[in-house]
Design goal:
Layout lengths: L10 E9 L5 H11 L4 E7 L2 E9 H13 L13 E5 L7 E5 L19 E3 L1 H8 L4 E5 L3 H6 E3 L13 H15 L2 E5 L4 H10 L6 E4 L2 H8 L7 E3 L1 E2 L6 E2 L1
Parallel strand pairs: 2-5, 6-10, 7-9, 9-10
Antiparallel strand pairs: 1-3, 1-4, 2-3, 8-11, 12-13
């Protein structure tokens, strides 16, 4: 499959991830390479799960998603995975790659168990009320250049250029948030960074809430998202940004 095959075709972009223990991540990687001939994008596979962004004609995307949920090789591990969809005109990817990795997202902290631990999910419809409360610190769990392009109102920029620098920002500020009786509300593009971070933060004795499905899910579920969101959302593909 290449971008020429997408000419004059309405395309669907799908983003998804799942932290789940994969006993044979190499077999999962091989099977995913067999199932992605009709779509373009990238999938990361590790023993802690999968993380992916793909695009293709609607029927091709639907076939892949159904296979991910039901193929015997995956043994039902992705049966309940949530796909975040958006329409696109220009093909957002030039090729299809499935990568075998040590982790599907690199926090820079060893032995974080995001498979069995996570923070408090907040649905998009409830996020608006949460981030308006005075005892909540709203943290943008992305890089600074993404924050500058667009953000939730009142969100804090941690001032990092790499996700691996984010833990230091948290460690430097947790004592003050404790003293002030603050709760933490985090968001990121698709939710995966927050899920990994909140798993790491569970032992810090501070409530950690995360926007379920991230900004992409918020845009999809909230038709009046502009009430809370300022600017655009950077995406790591040829579309550059979404509003």
């Amino acid at each position: 499959m290449n971008t020429d095959s997408f000419a004059s075709t309405s395309l669907i972009h799908t983003a998804f991830f799942k932290f789940v223990r994969l006993d044979d991540a190499d077999a999962v990687t091989t099977r995913l390479r067999e199932l992605t001939h009709d779509v373009l994008g990238s999938i990361l596979v590790a023993e802690e799960g999968i993380n992916a962004v793909l695009a293709g004609p609607a029927d091709a995307v639907a076939r892949f998603e159904e296979a991910l949920r039901t193929d015997p090789v995956f043994a039902g591990r992705f049966a309940d995975i949530h796909f975040k969809h958006s329409a696109c005109i220009t093909p957002p990817f030039a090729r299809m790659k499935v990568h075998r990795k040590p982790e599907i997202v690199m926090l820079g902290v060893d032995d974080v168990d995001a498979v069995t631990k996570k923070g408090i999910d907040v649905a998009p419809a409830e996020w608006r009320e949460l981030i308006a409360q005075d005892d909540v610190v709203v943290i943008d769990n992305r890089n600074s250049f993404e924050y500058r392009l667009g953000k939730f109102r009142n969100a804090i920029d941690p001032g990092v250029d790499n996700f691996r620098d984010f833990p230091k920002f948290i460690e430097d500020n947790v004592p003050r948030w404790h003293k002030e009786g603050k709760r933490i509300a985090m968001y990121c593009t698709g939710g995966i960074r927050c899920e990994k971070t909140s798993a790491w933060m569970l032992d810090m004795d501070i409530p950690v809430y995360q926007l379920e499905g991230g900004i992409l899910n918020y845009f999809e579920k909230m038709p009046d998202a502009e009430r809370d969101w300022e600017g655009e959302c950077f995406v790591f593909d040829n579309r550059i940004a979404l509003d």
